[in-house]
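User: Design a sequence. Structure:
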């Protein structure tokens, strides 16, 4: 009998998670099924409980339910606790155990796949919503020289910097105040790319040799990556690798085995063209 997993969201039809987990299961010889589950906006908890009652083993949670999942869990990892967001749930001894693998997925993509160590680097994180919050603790765990959070609504960046102040060297900024500063790694965690918009980052912020990373991905370059290219950024990356790496971490939490991501990232990349 296969063990059952789902990814819950609304909308969910676009999710590539079933394809990713099917590839992981085939590669590691794990007997499992993984499907999409569309929950009504007011029906997240009821759907999770019904899936659990049906014998489900665990689930991934995506937009817009990550915060609700965080509230639902009986136990949380430290990174999920601080992020106030859960993307991975495991049913364990009658409890709902929550984790957040987004940040570790981002760090693994940057440090391992893109071969860019973050230790000692000046990192700029654009955005202060759920996507940004989920990656702060894992980024700080890489011991950057500093992590600056910039947001259109600067007060939200300040609140985040305060929340994580005991975990590393971090600060908050408006976009305007970034003028004249340079960073080695600039990560776009805003939702601007969704509407084909560009965060109002001043010119000159990309240090020589810098990495520009957009958590969004798509067929071509996002507006942020196009801007980074014009600004002379040395390396451009979208969020496809992060997507696969966060899934690999979830798979490892559930199955105790870490799949190899290289071929899966290549397969998804080919599918985007
Ligand atoms: P998510 O869960 O994807 O992070 P969110 O919590 O709604 O979504 O947060 C969206 C983030 O993108 C916010 O930081 C938002 O900035 P504000 O807090 O000032 O609203 C940011 N954002 C969205 N569109 C943007 C744009 N065009 N330029 C800059 N920042 C943008």
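Assistant: Done.
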């Amino acid at each position: 009998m296969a063990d059952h997993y789902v990814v819950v969201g609304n909308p969910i039809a676009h999710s590539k998670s079933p394809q990713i987990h099917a590839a992981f299961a085939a590669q590691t010889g794990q007997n499992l099924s993984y499907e999409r589950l569309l929950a009504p906006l007011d029906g997240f908890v009821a759907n999770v409980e019904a899936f659990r009652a049906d014998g489900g083993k665990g689930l991934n949670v995506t937009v817009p339910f990550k915060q609700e999942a965080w509230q639902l869990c009986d136990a949380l990892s430290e990174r999920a606790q601080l992020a106030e967001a859960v993307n991975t749930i495991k049913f364990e001894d009658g409890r709902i155990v929550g984790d957040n693998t987004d940040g570790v997925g981002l760090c693994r993509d940057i440090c391992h796949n893109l071969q860019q160590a973050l230790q000692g680097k000046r990192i700029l994180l654009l955005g202060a919503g759920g996507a940004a919050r989920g990656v702060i603790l894992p980024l700080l765990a890489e011991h950057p020289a500093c992590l600056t959070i910039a947001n259109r609504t600067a007060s939200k960046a300040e609140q985040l910097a305060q929340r994580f102040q005991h975990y590393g060297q971090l600060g908050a900024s408006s976009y305007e105040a970034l003028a004249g500063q340079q960073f080695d790694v600039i990560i776009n965690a805003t939702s601007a790319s969704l509407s084909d918009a560009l965060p109002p980052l001043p010119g000159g912020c990309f240090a020589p040799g810098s990495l520009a990373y957009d958590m969004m991905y798509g067929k071509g370059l996002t507006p942020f990556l196009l801007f980074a290219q014009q600004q002379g950024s040395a390396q451009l990356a979208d969020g496809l690798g992060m997507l696969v790496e966060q899934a690999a971490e979830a798979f490892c939490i559930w199955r105790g085995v870490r799949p190899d991501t290289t071929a899966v990232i290549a397969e998804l990349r080919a599918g985007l063209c």
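Residues 127-132, 151-153, 156, 190-192, 197, 199 surround 2'-monophosphoadenosine-5'-diphosphate (CB under 6 Å). The chain has a mean pLDDT of 97.
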